[in-house]
Amino acid sequence: MGFRVFGQDADLAAIVLVYFVQGALGLSSLATSFFLKDELGLQPSELALLGGAASLPWLVKPLWGFLSDSVPLLGYRRRSYLVLAGGLGCCGWLALAAPGCVTSPPTALAALLATSLATAVSDVVVDSLVVERTRAAPAATAGTLQSLCWGASSVGTLATALLSGSLVQHYGPRPVFLFTAAFPLLVALVAPLVRDEAPLGGQGALSLGAQAQRLAATFSAPQIYQPALFLFLWQAAPSPDAALFFFTTEQLHFTPEFLGRAKLAGACASLAGVWLYNSYLKRVPIATIFRSTAVLGATLGCTQLLLVTGLNRQLGISDQAFALSDTVVLTALGRISFLPTLVLAARICPEGVEATLFAALMSVFNAAGVASGAGGAALTAALGVKDGNFDNLPALILICNGLSLASLPFLRLLDSVPGLSEAEQGVEDVELHEIAAPTTAAHERDPPDASKQA
Fold this sequence. Notes:
globular
């Protein structure tokens, strides 16, 4: 029988540990930002572009699900992929940690792509394990399993948020990468504990093609592609994140240790946003939440102008205090605005292709994030925000916040979703562990962190 955790055997312990690792990989986010900025000398626009490129494995999440479902490795559909992902992730972080191994943007991109691919694959595989066990479990137990997994990921995020800055400040980025390499190695080590069965016979290639055709046919329906298009437009507005990261570290001299404290505050605010949504807002129509949070987010986002112009100091508020408070408010609001996207994605998934289509919709969301970073990089370069010149940073912030409202006229695309106008929309069955690692305010965000997406 083996050891037991919360009344379950080692299989559950392995799944929970993988979710913990997903959250704990945030340890590397600040180290990655400072490594690319200080050791490789990237400019803000280059930082944003490289971060977006490193996220590419998350844009094809359904592919990893297809492969895991249909093409067994060494007789297993889950264990082998977890071992492979853990080994790849460990090698990627070790390459970043080794002096003389990663010394240029192309080699950094290759290493970050390896870590991103490893995390994306393990994320899809462990999600499928939870789906299988949720489907076979009683309703009460299924809810407990989902909560346990989401809680493990949150614990991992919180446990490493504060350490991320302190370690970078005292030891530099490369030792942090070395420490981070231990997390995917844990995934590879616990993978044999997972209960797993290979599909019967040689049906892999046929199943893969049939799944792809079914997904394409499903996506062609207006009630699917129209909401998906809105989700893309909703998240694709250009972002000033990279430029703000440079400003806070070069102009305001925020230390990695302080940025780590800001990450911890953001992680706590993210959980608070989840609680607020589930407690008070989950019955509010989704379109109303999209509209309200867009307007409120654009308005509050402009408070960053106080920081970049120094007006906060004239008001008697220190840069650190203003940044922390801004982080908490904007992160909680960001989490509240993101949860309805999960509700919407879950509502439009038809029976029979739920897991695959949900992964595809999350890939659309991740693609929007890449487009957001690329758009922000283009605007940053066009406005000449580089080499310590932040004269046009206020204009960049205003443009990005203004463009965040551009998706509102497309809310009518949601009219194709049956019953969406009803105020009977909960998140009881939404997989909250699909939420990305807690996002902080724009000027505290870690632009190139591709370790965990939606």
